[in-house]
Amino acid sequence: MRRLDELHLEYPFMGSRMLRDQLYWQGIAVGHKHVSTLMKRMGIEALYRKPRTSTKHPGHTTCPYLLRGMAINRANQVWALDTTYIPMARGFVYLTAVVDWASRKVLAARSPSHWNRAMRLRYCWKHLPIMAGRRLSTPIKAASLLPTSSYGRSRNRVVD
Hints:
This protein is α+β, with helices and mostly antiparallel strands. The chain folds into two domains: 2-42; 78-159, no CATH class. 29% of the residues lie in helices and 23% in strands. It has four helices and five strands. It has helices spanning 2-10, 16-25, 32-42, 117-132, and strands at residues 78-87, 92-100, 106-110, 145-150, 153-159. The protein has a five-stranded antiparallel sheet, with helices on one face. Helix 2 crosses helix 3. It is elongated and about 70 Å long. The model is unreliable at 134-160 (pLDDT under 50).
Protein backbone atom coordinates (compact mmCIF):
# COMPACT_ATOMS: atom_id res chain seq x y z
CA MET A 1 0.00 0.00 0.00
CA ARG A 2 2.91 2.32 0.72
CA ARG A 3 4.41 1.76 -2.74
CA LEU A 4 0.97 2.19 -4.32
CA ASP A 5 0.58 5.53 -2.53
CA GLU A 6 4.03 6.65 -3.70
CA LEU A 7 3.23 5.71 -7.30
CA HIS A 8 -0.11 7.52 -7.13
CA LEU A 9 1.58 10.68 -5.83
CA GLU A 10 4.15 10.46 -8.63
CA TYR A 11 1.65 9.55 -11.38
CA PRO A 12 -1.82 10.77 -10.31
CA PHE A 13 -3.33 10.05 -13.76
CA MET A 14 -2.73 6.30 -13.55
CA GLY A 15 -5.61 3.95 -12.92
CA SER A 16 -5.52 0.48 -11.41
CA ARG A 17 -4.25 -1.25 -14.56
CA MET A 18 -1.38 1.16 -15.16
CA LEU A 19 -0.43 1.07 -11.48
CA ARG A 20 -0.51 -2.74 -11.64
CA ASP A 21 1.93 -2.60 -14.57
CA GLN A 22 4.22 -0.22 -12.67
CA LEU A 23 4.20 -2.54 -9.65
CA TYR A 24 4.87 -5.55 -11.90
CA TRP A 25 7.91 -3.85 -13.44
CA GLN A 26 9.18 -3.21 -9.90
CA GLY A 27 8.85 -6.90 -9.01
CA ILE A 28 5.50 -6.79 -7.19
CA ALA A 29 3.01 -9.17 -8.84
CA VAL A 30 -0.59 -8.18 -8.10
CA GLY A 31 -3.77 -8.15 -10.15
CA HIS A 32 -5.57 -5.01 -11.25
CA LYS A 33 -8.65 -5.95 -9.21
CA HIS A 34 -6.55 -6.10 -6.04
CA VAL A 35 -4.97 -2.75 -6.93
CA SER A 36 -8.46 -1.34 -7.55
CA THR A 37 -9.64 -2.63 -4.15
CA LEU A 38 -6.61 -1.09 -2.43
CA MET A 39 -7.20 2.22 -4.22
CA LYS A 40 -10.82 2.28 -3.02
CA ARG A 41 -9.73 1.42 0.52
CA MET A 42 -7.12 4.21 0.46
CA GLY A 43 -9.57 6.68 -1.08
CA ILE A 44 -7.49 7.44 -4.17
CA GLU A 45 -8.56 7.50 -7.81
CA ALA A 46 -7.01 8.43 -11.12
CA LEU A 47 -7.18 12.13 -11.94
CA TYR A 48 -8.25 12.78 -15.50
CA ARG A 49 -10.75 14.92 -17.32
CA LYS A 50 -14.16 13.24 -17.16
CA PRO A 51 -16.87 13.77 -19.80
CA ARG A 52 -19.50 16.34 -18.85
CA THR A 53 -22.51 14.85 -20.58
CA SER A 54 -25.28 16.25 -18.37
CA THR A 55 -24.25 19.89 -18.14
CA LYS A 56 -25.89 22.23 -20.61
CA HIS A 57 -24.06 24.92 -22.55
CA PRO A 58 -24.49 28.35 -20.91
CA GLY A 59 -25.62 29.86 -24.22
CA HIS A 60 -28.47 27.38 -24.68
CA THR A 61 -31.84 28.36 -23.30
CA THR A 62 -34.38 25.98 -21.78
CA CYS A 63 -38.05 26.54 -22.52
CA PRO A 64 -40.44 26.37 -19.57
CA TYR A 65 -42.65 23.30 -19.30
CA LEU A 66 -46.06 24.77 -20.08
CA LEU A 67 -48.07 21.62 -19.35
CA ARG A 68 -47.14 21.47 -15.65
CA GLY A 69 -50.25 21.36 -13.50
CA MET A 70 -52.52 20.71 -16.48
CA ALA A 71 -54.86 17.70 -16.17
CA ILE A 72 -54.56 15.72 -19.39
CA ASN A 73 -57.64 13.51 -19.37
CA ARG A 74 -59.30 13.65 -22.79
CA ALA A 75 -58.31 12.81 -26.35
CA ASN A 76 -57.01 15.53 -28.68
CA GLN A 77 -56.03 17.70 -25.72
CA VAL A 78 -52.25 17.24 -25.99
CA TRP A 79 -50.24 15.69 -28.79
CA ALA A 80 -46.54 14.87 -28.68
CA LEU A 81 -44.20 14.66 -31.65
CA ASP A 82 -41.68 12.00 -30.65
CA THR A 83 -38.58 11.10 -32.68
CA THR A 84 -36.87 7.79 -31.91
CA TYR A 85 -33.49 6.58 -33.17
CA ILE A 86 -33.60 2.93 -34.30
CA PRO A 87 -30.30 1.15 -35.08
CA MET A 88 -30.47 -1.17 -38.09
CA ALA A 89 -28.12 -3.79 -39.55
CA ARG A 90 -26.69 -1.18 -41.92
CA GLY A 91 -26.93 2.26 -40.35
CA PHE A 92 -29.98 3.63 -38.58
CA VAL A 93 -33.41 5.13 -39.15
CA TYR A 94 -35.44 7.76 -37.34
CA LEU A 95 -39.07 7.00 -36.50
CA THR A 96 -41.19 10.07 -35.87
CA ALA A 97 -44.70 9.65 -34.51
CA VAL A 98 -47.43 12.01 -33.40
CA VAL A 99 -48.96 10.53 -30.23
CA ASP A 100 -52.10 11.57 -28.37
CA TRP A 101 -51.16 11.71 -24.68
CA ALA A 102 -54.53 10.81 -23.17
CA SER A 103 -55.33 7.80 -25.37
CA ARG A 104 -51.66 6.99 -26.18
CA LYS A 105 -52.65 6.33 -29.77
CA VAL A 106 -50.24 6.94 -32.62
CA LEU A 107 -51.98 9.45 -34.85
CA ALA A 108 -49.34 9.45 -37.59
CA ALA A 109 -45.86 8.01 -38.08
CA ARG A 110 -43.06 8.38 -40.59
CA SER A 111 -39.50 7.07 -40.83
CA PRO A 112 -37.25 8.76 -43.40
CA SER A 113 -33.51 8.12 -43.30
CA HIS A 114 -32.74 11.62 -41.98
CA TRP A 115 -34.60 14.38 -40.13
CA ASN A 116 -34.05 17.94 -39.12
CA ARG A 117 -36.21 20.30 -37.07
CA ALA A 118 -37.76 21.99 -40.12
CA MET A 119 -38.81 18.62 -41.58
CA ARG A 120 -40.45 17.58 -38.28
CA LEU A 121 -42.44 20.83 -38.09
CA ARG A 122 -43.46 20.61 -41.76
CA TYR A 123 -44.61 17.03 -41.17
CA CYS A 124 -46.65 18.09 -38.13
CA TRP A 125 -48.33 21.01 -39.94
CA LYS A 126 -49.08 18.84 -42.98
CA HIS A 127 -50.81 16.10 -40.96
CA LEU A 128 -52.47 18.25 -38.31
CA PRO A 129 -55.97 18.36 -39.91
CA ILE A 130 -55.78 14.67 -40.80
CA MET A 131 -54.75 13.65 -37.27
CA ALA A 132 -57.58 15.60 -35.72
CA GLY A 133 -60.03 13.63 -37.85
CA ARG A 134 -61.93 16.77 -38.72
CA ARG A 135 -61.57 19.96 -40.65
CA LEU A 136 -60.12 22.74 -38.55
CA SER A 137 -62.63 25.56 -38.36
CA THR A 138 -60.04 28.04 -37.13
CA PRO A 139 -56.44 28.09 -38.25
CA ILE A 140 -53.98 26.89 -35.64
CA LYS A 141 -51.73 29.63 -34.38
CA ALA A 142 -48.00 29.10 -34.34
CA ALA A 143 -48.05 29.74 -30.59
CA SER A 144 -50.08 26.57 -30.05
CA LEU A 145 -47.16 24.45 -31.26
CA LEU A 146 -44.99 24.44 -28.17
CA PRO A 147 -41.46 23.16 -28.65
CA THR A 148 -39.99 21.90 -25.39
CA SER A 149 -36.87 19.93 -24.74
CA SER A 150 -35.16 18.03 -21.98
CA TYR A 151 -31.87 16.20 -21.69
CA GLY A 152 -31.77 13.30 -24.08
CA ARG A 153 -34.93 14.03 -26.01
CA SER A 154 -36.75 16.82 -27.79
CA ARG A 155 -40.51 17.06 -28.28
CA ASN A 156 -42.84 19.44 -30.04
CA ARG A 157 -46.21 19.50 -28.31
CA VAL A 158 -49.49 20.70 -29.75
CA VAL A 159 -51.92 22.02 -27.15
CA ASP A 160 -55.49 23.12 -27.90
